[in-house]
Design brief:
Layout lengths: L2 H11 L3 E10 L5 E9 L5 E8 L13 H21 L10 E7 L2 E7 L15 H17 L21 H6 L3 H15 L5 E3 L8 E3 L5 E3 L6 E3 L2 H11 L2 H6 L1 H15 L5 H25 L8 H14 L2
Antiparallel strand pairs: 1-2, 2-3, 3-5, 4-5, 6-9, 7-8
Helix pairs in contact: 3-8, 5-9, 5-10, 6-9, 9-10
């Protein structure tokens, strides 16, 4: 990292020096790194820096090395910086404070609060119900914060898998009935009356947990407009097996909507009715993407196949 970036980080964090560096994660397809920097003379011991460096050569792990994919990733980092600069402070759901955003040529630097130091040091791979419910509460608070707002400078349609940004995966899809129904599924989700900002990548790995059960969310590259059920269905698919997805479906929705109604300024029965009906549609939308992108993926299971088939049947003659 060059001296100018180091100077900006020290100034943003109120530090006299950067005394250590740890790589937390390589960004997808070689687009940079997420670092934890240890500080001296600062109010906090560390900050997290997302350092985006656009590569000369693309290297997608599943072989989708296309210009469209590259442009999607470039825009995702533009969206994330805009998100932190303009929208993040409006969230009632906990997320890292942004200390600085710097752009220089093909590089972007986001200096963020270290959530580990802020009291969210835990990551979960096999969450219990209490942890799942805490994430559903986080999503409800997040969605309530942006209900009815226009995602200017963000993705017009949030999530990384929505149909208009995934033509190659649709072309590769072998399920002809689902391929034909895909535009109808997309249209039904996009035509919902009640829209908010969706996180867009609300998988379990993007939640940080405190020791007393609180939750914070990270990674806002695909935040944008849409129906909140996209986040809920995607999150549940990231942390439960097919039996529990089916067994707990009613409990999942009841929990989410109880938190959503509590987070709204006033109860909204019409929103809940509309979004409940779109939960399985949102699930089918992600299933469509996944089946074209990675046909052998572990998230493709009998539950998602059955509810997708039911959605396709309901939308087609």
């Amino acid at each position: 990292m060059d001296a100018n970036f180091q100077s900006i980080i020290r100034q943003a964090a109120g530090a006299s020096a950067i005394i250590g560096q740890e790589t937390l994660q390589e960004l997808w397809s070689g687009y940079g790194k997420i670092l934890r920097l240890k500080l001296a003379g600062a109010p906090t011991e560390s900050v997290v820096v997302k350092h985006v460096q656009l590569p000369a050569q693309q290297n997608h792990p599943r072989g989708w090395d296309t210009n469209l994919g590259h442009q999607r990733k470039v825009k995702s980092y533009q969206v994330e910086t805009r998100w932190y600069e303009q929208y993040s402070k409006q969230s009632a759901a906990r997320l890292p404070r942004c200390l600085a955003v710097v752009r220089s040529g093909h590089e972007v630097l986001m200096v963020l609060e270290d959530l580990d130091e802020a009291g969210y040091p835990l990551r979960k791979q096999n969450p219990g119900w209490e942890e799942i419910a805490a994430c559903l509460q986080w999503l409800a608070r997040f969605h309530a914060s942006y209900l009815g707002k226009t995602p200017e400078g963000l993705w017009g349609t949030g999530t990384y898998w929505h149909l208009s940004t995934r033509p190659h995966e649709l072309k590769a899809l072998d399920d002809q009935a689902l391929k034909e129904a895909a535009p109808l599924i997309d249209k039904q989700l996009n035509a919902c009356q009640f829209k908010t900002f969706v996180h867009g990548d609300a998988k379990l790995a993007n939640f940080c947990f405190s020791r007393d059960g609180r939750v914070a969310g990270v990674d806002f590259q695909y935040v944008g407009g849409g129906c909140g059920m996209k986040d809920v269905a995607y999150f549940i698919g990231s942390c439960l097996d097919e039996r529990d997805c089916e067994r707990l479906e009613g409990q999942i929705l009841d929990t989410y909507f109880s938190h959503l109604q509590a987070a709204l300024q006033q109860p909204n029965a019409a929103l809940e009715k509309e979004w409940r009906a779109l939960y399985r549609v949102a699930w089918a939308d992600f299933h469509r993407f996944l089946k074209g992108w990675s046909p052998g993926h572990w998230k493709l299971n009998s539950y998602s196949e059955r509810i997708t088939a039911a959605v396709v049947k309901s939308l087609t003659p």
